[in-house]
């Protein structure tokens, strides 16, 4: 455990990088002010934990930028009673934040070592998140339907399995596209119809799997 308190830079991050950039969901902002991001990054990067940027977490992967974590949850319109699937657990940071906003949080990661470390960390810090190793491009059929599916890895299209595992009125917020020109997309299920909105340009690691890219 680190002895010095990082709640000052954490609150500065919420005001400066989130509120000032027009994020408005107070429940998401409160969760961002609560979760200690420094616990989710490698020890030698702790002093950069509240810079608004992705950081390396090993296995060629990154912890998402705070702004993108908060924006994704706000855009997914997550309510207090929602069941949510988080694709790409990584460090577990986004899952921890989402678990404070939703009712049930499922998080799936394809890299065994990352999933194990994240699951241990989430438990130690007291976040109620169900973590599984597997190909999240196929969703998590046993736990469906979900009110929201959020992803931190970009595939070529929105996987059909995610649409199939969405509750009526449910939302998917995910990056879609090739390496350098991805768009954050929101898909909303209304009965048998899916409404798709393109929200902003983003850059994420690739979604690797059956309905993502090849390894
Ligand atoms: N939300 C994470 C971000 C991790 S980066 C955080 O806050 O730390 C995205 C993660 O998606 C990587 O860990 C990568 O291994 C994982 N990933 C890529 N393809 C995947 C797939 N098909 N299923 C599950 N996880 C996947």
What is the element layout, followed by pairings?
Layout: H1 7-18, H2 26-34, E1 55-58, E2 61-63, H3 66-75, E3 83-87, H4 93-101, E4 104-109, H5 112-125, E5 130-133, E6 146-151, E7 153-154, H6 160-164, E8 166-176, E9 182-190, E10 193-202, E11 205-206
Parallel strand pairs: 3-4, 3-6, 4-5, 6-8, 7-11
Antiparallel strand pairs: 1-2, 8-9, 9-10
Helix pairs in contact: 1-2, 2-4
The chain binds S-adenosyl-L-homocysteine.
Q: Care to describe what's here?
A:
The protein is 27% helix and 29% strand. It is α/β, with parallel strands linked by helices. The strands form three sheets. The protein has a seven-stranded mixed β-sheet with strand order 5-4-3-6-8-9-10. Strands 1-2 form a two-stranded antiparallel ribbon. Strands 7-11 form a two-stranded parallel sheet. Strand 8 and strand 9 (182-190) form a beta hairpin. The radius of gyration is 16 Å and the shape is globular. The protein starts with 6 loop residues before the first helix and ends in a 9-residue tail after the last strand. The mean pLDDT is 96. The structure holds S-adenosyl-L-homocysteine. Residues 61-64, 87-88, 90-91, 93-94, 108-111, 114, 135-137, 152-153, 205, 207-209, 212 line the site of S-adenosyl-L-homocysteine.
């Amino acid at each position: 455990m680190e002895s010095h308190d990082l709640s000052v830079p954490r609150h500065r991050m919420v005001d400066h990088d989130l509120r000032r950039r027009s994020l408005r969901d107070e429940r998401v902002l409160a969760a961002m002010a609560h979760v200690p991001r420094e616990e989710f990054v490698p020890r030698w990067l702790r002093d950069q934990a509240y810079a608004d940027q992705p950081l390396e977490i090993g296995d060629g992967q990154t912890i998402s930028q705070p702004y993108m974590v908060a924006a994704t949850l706000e855009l997914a319109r997550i309510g207090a009673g929602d069941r949510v699937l988080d694709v790409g657990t990584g460090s577990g940071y986004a899952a921890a934040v989402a678990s404070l906003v939703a009712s049930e949080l499922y998080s799936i990661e394809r890299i065994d070592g990352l999933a194990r470390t994240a699951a241990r960390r989430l438990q130690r810090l007291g976040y109620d998140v169900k973590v599984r190793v597997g190909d999240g491009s196929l969703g998590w059929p046993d736990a469906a339907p979900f009110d929201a599916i959020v992803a931190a890895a970009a595939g070529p299209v929105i996987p059909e399995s995610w649409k199939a595992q969405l509750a009526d009125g449910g939302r998917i917020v995910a990056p879609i596209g090739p390496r350098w020109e991805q768009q954050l997309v929101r898909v909303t299920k209304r009965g048998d119809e899916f409404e798709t909105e393109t929200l902003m340009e983003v850059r994420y690691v690739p979604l690797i799997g059956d309905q993502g890219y090849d390894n």
